[in-house]
Design brief:
alpha/beta, single chain, six-stranded mixed β-sheet, 29% helix, 2 domains, Immunoglobulin-like, four-stranded antiparallel β-sheet, 9 helices, Aminopeptidase, 387 residues
Length: 387
Amino acid sequence: MKMKISRRRFLGVGGLTFSVAMILPHVAFAARNALRSMRTGVQPGNKTRLVIETSARPSYSLSYPENQLVVDIANMSADASVKPTLASGTLVSAITQTQSGDHLKIIATLRKPISQLQKSQIMLLEPNGDNDYRLVLDFSAGAAQKIADSVAAGANMPKAAATKHVIVIDAGHGGKDPGCIGKNGTREKDIVLSVAKKLRSKLDAAGFKTFMTRSDDTYLKLARRAEIAEQKKGDLFISLHANANPSRAVKGFSIYTLSEKASDEEAKKLAESENAADKIGVDGFTEFERDIRAALSSLQQHAVAEMSEEYANGCARAFRSNKIEAQAGPSVRHAPFAVLRSTVPGALIELGHLSNASEEKLLKSGAHQDKLVAAIVRSVKNYNFDV
């Protein structure tokens, strides 16, 4: 199976305090960054992934001495208690720390030389429920030379068909589980199925290979939905839902990724509500398949989480670019959703609130559904499947 493994406060000061601030070095007022963890893993295509986790957003630069990758992070001290976790089969043989003034240099010793990393090979992920900021670097041996050689050798050869990335679309709820129901009787299961069908059509037309966990009014347990994503060897899993809130004034989209610790109380309650869908079955609640859980090593879980978060942040940007209203608070949140427990990166998208009368009307509208689909298609097209 293929393993796929994105605040500053302005302190107003005046009087004597302002004069002192002008005299003292600016860095004296900056919160010092701290190193949390360092780890490596293997990505598809025999790529190495280096992840450096920090307490605050890192200000960094990269350099490439012979057989080394050096990450220079400003405003940070070496921390001998932070030991690297190195996976087997990567280009990194060792990771060391060196202090240089106010900068920490993290030196990855490489088994083979690499070329300079491009923007597409670098991700800076925001904190989620289990992690702080993460600088993610993906690279392979002699990438530049290999590309040059392949271009020269294949100049007169016909182009091979591009690989179709597999998108698994999950329309939430279904059958005896209607999901939430709006004041005017609109059922979540109907809205998300309508959007899912439109999304599949648009993604197919855009050159992706798509599968749906359900294409009709069928009830599926959460483990089965995740299992379908595994069986289809999905590159991305998108679970569609519509939200409800005790306050009918609350509206807007929100996007969730998997985390054992919820990012906030609302995310926790939503996960509990969505996970409770399995209790509707006559057989009672079914725990998520143990073999899938066991297949995920700690490093793989981190990799899936990082890829999922990258997609979720890009999806939120696409929604905002399409002028779709976001729920108040962070657009991307994290909670232990059972449907997202798999080796396939993915996100759960709450398209809006059926509990809000105006948004219930919008969600029923074909034009608004098309707007939602366009945003999701944009997010999939912008997602970097190759890292």
